[in-house]
Amino acid sequence: VGNNYSWVSNGLDVGDFKIVVPNGVTWSYWKNNPNQETKLRYVDIIVASGGVLELYSYINMGDYGRIIVMPGGSVVDMTTNTVMTFNNNASTSLIYNAGAMDGIRCLWQNSGTTYIASGGVLTGEEISLQNYNSVLTNWGKIDVSRVVGNGNQGTINNGCLLRSDEKLQVLYLNQGANTA
User: N or C, which end of the chain is more exposed by having fewer CB within 10 Å?
Assistant: First the structure.
């Protein structure tokens, strides 16, 4: 209806499938059965400048599942309960954010890569790096309540502003020049 679209997912497992959220469009993601283990595999969700991806359910990323947020695009947690998950077998998954990801309750990363580009912003409650191979690279701004990895999990490569209110607990924290 108009420029608002929604998708109720039982998961996708298709080859080279791309969903583009263009300028002026709001696209809502709902997971059909919150108790069902479904994954977005081989799927690119691309949020273009001026596009909005609203999350009403958690997203479980599988092999080659990617969320790409371009400058001026945004991902918004509409429930204050959204979890973005990389699965154990999702080492090929990627979140690339050059826009805004606002209010994400938890970015749970069992593997895969998250890249916050210059100008990108990630705000939320928690980043949880749960695997030695989990990598978070930040060239933008991250402002969360806590970053956890049990002290022996995950790597953060920080090239800009990383703020964690409660704690920052990871295996490796690599700080670039002039970072905060």
Answer: N
Q: What is the pLDDT of residue 89?
A: 56
pTM: 0.84
Neighbours of 124 (CB within 10 A): 21
Sequence-distant (6+) residues with CB within 8 A of 90 are: 39, 61, 62, 63, 65, 110, 111, 112
Residue 71, pLDDT > 90, answer yes
Confidence of residue 1 (pLDDT cuts 50, 70, 90): very low
Give the Cα separation of 107 and 6 in Å (integer).
22
| Residues whose CB falls within 8 Å of the CB of residue 45, separated by 6 or more in sequence, listed in order | 19, 21, 53, 66, 67, 68
Residue 158, classed as helix, strand or coil, is: strand
**What are the angstrom distances between the C-alpha of 38 and each of 9, 15, 76, 104, 130?**
8, 16, 21, 19, 19
Q: Please give the mean pLDDT across all residues of the chain.
A: 80
